[in-house]
Amino acid sequence: MTEILVLYYSRYGATAQLARQVATGVEKSGAVARVRTVAPITTNMEGEAPAIPEQGPPYATIRDLEETDGLVLGSPTRFGNMAAPLKYFLDGTSGIWASGALVDRPFGVFTSTATMHGGQETTLLSMALPLIHQGMLWVGVPYTIPELTTTTSGGSPYGASHVAGADGRHEITREERRIAEALGERVGRLAEQLRHGAVA
């Protein structure tokens, strides 16, 4: 069975909402979504996250990357970049980079921002860069998804996105939901094809 890792960091819940839509799309493709998060980090060296989160999905490990057939990675925007906890996790993947374990596996990216022009596309690009270095194959959202041209909030060909609002309380719009599902579905479908050599 094809399995896709949906890996995200969410501080206030908006990116987690989007992750659920991505996972729904993965499941629609016939693949299994393995949903994981990463531990928060702090400048306080005394503070350490518990080994198991109090709620939500488990924390990701390197084995989650190794054992799955594709990845959809999500982060809120931090000054046009991915959040530090996700970057910290990715910085610890040099071992699988050296082994080439992720080469030719598909990946997609998603993000949420407080404002419409709050760095969505640069954040998606920042998340893609380390995965390209891993040899993974970037899966975007094609314009054959009609919601990509009708959305007045989040969504781009680079990946799914959500405008959460300054207070983080905006619900995911119908268009944002569909774009996120389409991304998950496409990564799941392509991972299945790559597993069976159906993609030239």
Shape: globular
Continuous helix count: 7
Rg: 16 Å
Name the quaternary structure: single chain
Elements, N to C (H/E) = EHEHEEHHEHEHEH
CATH superfamily: Flavodoxin domain
In CATH terms, what is the architecture?
3-Layer(aba) Sandwich
Major beta-sheet overview: 7 strands, mixed
Number of E strands: 7
CATH C-level name: Alpha Beta
Number of domains: 1
Proportion of residues in β-strands:
15-25%
Output the CATH topology. Rossmann fold
What does this structure look like?
38% of the residues lie in helices and 18% in strands. It has 200 residues and is an alpha/beta fold. Strands 1, 2, 3, 4, 5, 6 and 7 form a seven-stranded mixed sheet that branches. A hairpin with a 2-residue loop joins strand 3 and strand 4. The radius of gyration is 16 Å and the shape is globular. The mean pLDDT is 93.
Summed up, what is this model?
The protein has 200 residues and is of the alpha/beta class. It has helices at residues 14-28, 62-67, 84-91, 94-99, 120-133, 147-150, 174-195, and strands at residues 3-8, 32-37, 70-78, 81-82, 106-113, 137-138, 160-163.
What's the topology here?
Elements: E1 3-8, H1 14-28, E2 32-37, H2 62-67, E3 70-78, E4 81-82, H3 84-91, H4 94-99, E5 106-113, H5 120-133, E6 137-138, H6 147-150, E7 160-163, H7 174-195
Parallel strand pairs: 1-2, 1-3, 3-5, 5-6, 5-7
Antiparallel strand pairs: 3-4
What key phrases describe this protein's structure?
200 residues, alpha/beta, Rossmann fold, seven-stranded mixed sheet, 7 strands
